[in-house]
Fold this sequence. Notes:
Elements: H1 28-48, H2 56-68, H3 76-111, H4 123-137, H5 147-165, E1 167-168, E2 171-172, H6 174-198, H7 201-211, H8 220-239, H9 241-248, H10 251-256, H11 261-283, H12 289-301, H13 305-329, H14 338-361
Antiparallel strand pairs: 1-2
Amino acid sequence: MSRPAVSRPAPPPRRPAVRPAPLHGVPLSLCLVVLGVLLVVVVLVAAAVGSVPVSVGDTWQIVWGHLTGTDPGVNPAHEQIVWTFRVPRVLLAALCGAGLAVAGVVLQALVANPLADPFILGVSAGGSVGAVTVMALGAGALGGLGVSGAAFAGAMLAVALVFALGQQRGRLNPVRLVLAGVAVSYVFTSVTSLLQLQTSPNNMRQIMFWLLGSVAGARWDQLQVAGVVVVGVTSVLTLYGRQLNALVTGDESATALGVDVKRLRVVVIVLTSLLAGVLIAVAGGIGFVGLMVPHLVRLAFGVDHRRVLPISALVGAVYLVAVDLLCRTVDPPNELPLNILTALFGAPFFIWLMRRDRSLSHS
């Protein structure tokens, strides 16, 4: 007599193994040194390339001569081209890439959403409204604020609206926050379009090129403010790396670990708005850097924000300097806005990222 078959519960579905980041075990100091050297090399190459070619060696002599106060001993015309026009442009691109990457890292941690960046959350749209208002109507339109001040004020206003709309029962809802950011971005973009209709045709091309992102015409005086803000804000946010790690686990877990979540959000929002507002004022709206670079860094170096923040700053700087170099050289003598190439590179990356995550969830 055969025994009746005993039904056994089905085994639980196997979770896909989490692949460790390939460079997670590399010391942070070594990563920063290697990326720093790479940034210097990319900056020198970008400063050497242009309609008037200058060798990398001469470019280095020019830069070193100005830094040390010695005579570079090169063609004076080449010296003026490199030091007056190209070096400020390349350095501004590096600062913008670093700042936007850091802003993307922090905003993604703040709202626990991988799609968060200054564009998605309306920071760029708000900053653009402030800056374009001054450019189109003059400084008197906003009580005498300059372009940088107006961009910061617009970014802060957009952030305040987004986070007010993103609250649900006193708590921040990541889905509502992203939806609110999209809605506020559309509203501010409409205001920007209306302002463009009020300006003269002579200003229209300048505003349009600025809205698409550009570091052409960068000046040394712009680098002072942007450099202090990017370096200062990045340094401060890196000090909050441990708290950002706790925040990613959820508000309740972060509070249990001793993190003042509300205070942390206020500090991070103000710093990120300052960062985005200043960069928007000097370079316009540059998209996809804050989305793509943080993902690349996490895939390669892990998710610890104490590592992700400084590494993202250097990777973002290298990336945007290279993109700006392509914008200058892909169709000479014409120059492409930065957003054209950042979107061209960023969109396929996210299509790959979505396919990668879906394949992992079904393995």
